[in-house]
Specification:
With about 140 residues, this protein is of the alpha+beta class. It has a single domain, classed as Hotdog Thioesterase (Thiol Ester Dehydrase, Chain A, Roll), CATH 3.10.129.10. Helices cover about 15% and strands about 45% of the residues. The protein has a six-stranded antiparallel sheet with strand order 1-2-4-5-6-3, covered by helices on one side.
Length: about 140
């Protein structure tokens, strides 16, 4: 398991844009399961939406991307690099995410060649899928 302090040694993201609280499972270069505890203290809830707090879908996708980046950056030869979005396909929002929810972020790299790759990603609240997507990425300096 990786704590938020461990995660910050690997990812360049910092609060308030670091969207992973811990990693529960990790296979470098292959797979990770992370956790994001969603609280009313998140700065985006001030405007999304007043009176009906809903986590923006794009930030759930970003949390998944950060988990995917962590998978790739824990491969020794990738340490210190950056991971960039190449694209998102088959994105499906299935459930709102609200304060008090615990997001389980599941990312699996399905193809990686050189500096480019593809992965499956899904965010769950309990056993319910909140978001599913396929993403592409590029490793860079």
């Amino acid at each position: 398991m990786l704590t938020v302090d461990d995660i910050q040694k690997i990812l360049p993201h910092r609060p308030p844009f670091l969207l992973i609280d811990r990693i529960e499972e990790l296979e470098p270069g292959k797979r990770a399961v992370g956790i994001k505890c969603v609280t009313m203290n998140e700065p985006f809830f001030a405007g999304h939406f007043p009176g009906k707090a809903v986590m923006p879908g794009v930030l759930i996708l970003e949390a998944l991307a950060q988990a995917g980046a962590l998978v790739m950056l824990t491969v020794k030869e990738n340490a210190g690099k950056l991971v960039y979005f190449g694209g998102m396909d088959k994105v499906r929002f299935k459930r709102q995410v609200v304060p008090g929810d615990v997001l389980r972020l599941v990312v699996e790299i399905i193809k990686s060649k050189g500096s480019f790759g593809t992965g499956n990603a899904a965010a769950y609240v309990g056993d319910q899928a909140a978001v599913e997507a396929v993403f592409t990425f590029a490793l860079g300096e």
